[in-house]
């Protein structure tokens, strides 16, 4: 059946199902069009009448990514669904009734170039079932989101997430959530962005808790490294490396040049490539988030999978890419948080790819979202492989995430590591 919620920007129509209410593609900022793609997110002007939120909306411009025999569609979602208005959130709530429920804001991964809130893994019905208001954020990717350009604010994708958190503060009560009880959680690139929020002064007060899944507190490019990517992009496009020049170029061209940016040597005299060549985009900062002025008042749940690199067919980069930066961020937070840093390790081995995938990057997500039994995650090409998921693991892991969002305590002592596997 149809339901409606009256937000400060206008009325939006959603759908009710057995898990609660779902509202798709609710704008948190104005559409990034033309030169506006390289500006900070602007407030949405609102809409007359009733906005249709019963169907998924557009996604950020992005390429197709291929992982060979592994079906990663549940992770990446539908790819680029064209449309200007993609700075939106999807909201799943038990009811838009003015209640004061805990809020969880999810920031998707995808190497800073792909992904969306539309991915099947992030359906969120289990969170709604368990009394959580789930908000899933789309943000700018690739060139519009993260390329460092003269005349443009840096880290525009991160600015989008900040704007979405501002929207949550101002609007989530309409959807039955408590704006004073917000947990931000992200995976991969989304986890790196979540970690950066801990060191972003403008984010202070917008959330109480954070969960960093397979991210890195040392994943930012230095300005020198970012400048190499900018020079390569400008050369591929035949344009000056300025926001003004890039503002005239269509999104399709930004997607087309991505292969020309792959494999750039970003090693410098002072820094290694923090992403080990997996993406030409990341945050840009002279100081890594783990070394910045972290907000010790925010509780943190942080961890990695035991075989992260297996997703990329490389067993040598898991610790370098995720583990070391996660450990550095966890230690830095523990020093200032007064016992509010909880750690986990995920070790369940997927039997996908003839057992070679193992406890790889992304494999924890079906358990966090409590969808590990879904048939589209199984079979020879499924993320979890042909074998059934272990009994009770999804329920235990999902319950820990919900408990942390409710109380800041996932169920084990701070500064110890809980193993899921």
Automatic annotation (TrEMBL):
<keyword id="KW-0378">Hydrolase</keyword>
<dbReference type="InterPro" id="IPR029058">
    <property type="entry name" value="AB_hydrolase_fold"/>
</dbReference>
<protein>
    <recommendedName>
        <fullName>Carboxylic ester hydrolase</fullName>
        <ecNumber>3.1.1.-</ecNumber>
    </recommendedName>
</protein>
<dbReference type="InterPro" id="IPR019826">
    <property type="entry name" value="Carboxylesterase_B_AS"/>
</dbReference>
<feature type="domain" description="Carboxylesterase type B">
    <location>
        <begin position="5"/>
        <end position="241"/>
    </location>
</feature>
<dbReference type="InterPro" id="IPR002168">
    <property type="entry name" value="Lipase_GDXG_HIS_AS"/>
</dbReference>
<comment type="similarity">
    <text>Belongs to the type-B carboxylesterase/lipase family.</text>
</comment>
<dbReference type="Pfam" id="PF00135">
    <property type="entry name" value="COesterase"/>
</dbReference>
<dbReference type="InterPro" id="IPR050309">
    <property type="entry name" value="Type-B_Carboxylest/Lipase"/>
</dbReference>
<dbReference type="GO" id="GO:0016787">
    <property type="term" value="F:hydrolase activity"/>
</dbReference>
<dbReference type="InterPro" id="IPR002018">
    <property type="entry name" value="CarbesteraseB"/>
</dbReference>
<comment type="similarity">
    <text>Belongs to the 'GDXG' lipolytic enzyme family.</text>
</comment>
């Amino acid at each position: 059946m149809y339901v409606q919620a009256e937000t400060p920007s206008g009325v939006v129509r959603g759908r009710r199902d057995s898990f609660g209410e779902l509202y798709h593609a609710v704008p948190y900022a104005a559409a990034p069009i033309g030169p506006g793609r390289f500006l900070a997110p602007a407030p949405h002007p609102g809409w007359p009448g009733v906005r249709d939120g019963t169907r998924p909306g557009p996604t950020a411009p992005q390429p197709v990514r291929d992982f060979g025999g592994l079906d990663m569609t549940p992770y990446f979602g539908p790819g680029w669904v064209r449309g200007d208005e993609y700075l939106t959130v999807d909201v799943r709530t038990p009811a838009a009734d003015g209640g004061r429920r805990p809020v969880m804001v999810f920031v998707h991964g995808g190497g800073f170039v792909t992904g969306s809130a539309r991915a099947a893994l992030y359906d969120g019905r289990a969170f709604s079932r368990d009394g959580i208001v789930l908000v899933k954020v789309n943000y700018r990717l690739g060139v519009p989101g993260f390329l460092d350009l003269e005349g443009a604010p840096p880290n525009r994708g991160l600015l989008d997430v900040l704007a979405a958190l501002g929207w949550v503060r101002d609007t989530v009560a309409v959807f039955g959530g408590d704006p004073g009880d917000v947990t931000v959680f992200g995976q991969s690139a989304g986890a790196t962005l979540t970690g950066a929020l801990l060191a972003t002064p403008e984010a202070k007060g917008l959330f109480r808790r954070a969960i960093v899944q397979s991210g890195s507190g040392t994943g930012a490019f230095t300005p020198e490294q970012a400048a190499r990517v900018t020079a390569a992009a400008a050369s591929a496009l035949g344009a000056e490396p300025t926001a003004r020049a890039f503002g005239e170029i269509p999104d399709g061209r930004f997607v087309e040049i991505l292969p020309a940016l792959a494999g750039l040597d970003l090693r410098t005299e002072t820094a290694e490539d923090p992403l080990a060549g997996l993406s030409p985009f990341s945050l840009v900062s002279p100081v890594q988030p783990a070394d910045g002025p972290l907000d010790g008042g925010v509780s943190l749940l942080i961890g990695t999978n035991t075989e992260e690199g297996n997703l990329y067919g490389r067993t040598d980069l898991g610790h370098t890419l995720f583990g070391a930066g996660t450990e550095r961020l966890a230690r830095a937070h523990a020093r200032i948080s007064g016992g509010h840093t909880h750690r986990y390790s995920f070790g369940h081995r997927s039997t996908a790819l003839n057992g070679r995938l193992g406890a790889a990057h992304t494999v924890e997500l079906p358990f966090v979202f409590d969808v590990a039994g879904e048939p589209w995650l199984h079979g020879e090409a499924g993320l979890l492989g042909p074998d059934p998921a272990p009994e009770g693991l999804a329920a235990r892991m999902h319950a820990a995430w919900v408990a942390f969002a409710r109380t800041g305590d996932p169920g084990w002592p701070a500064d110890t590591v809980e193993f899921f596997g």
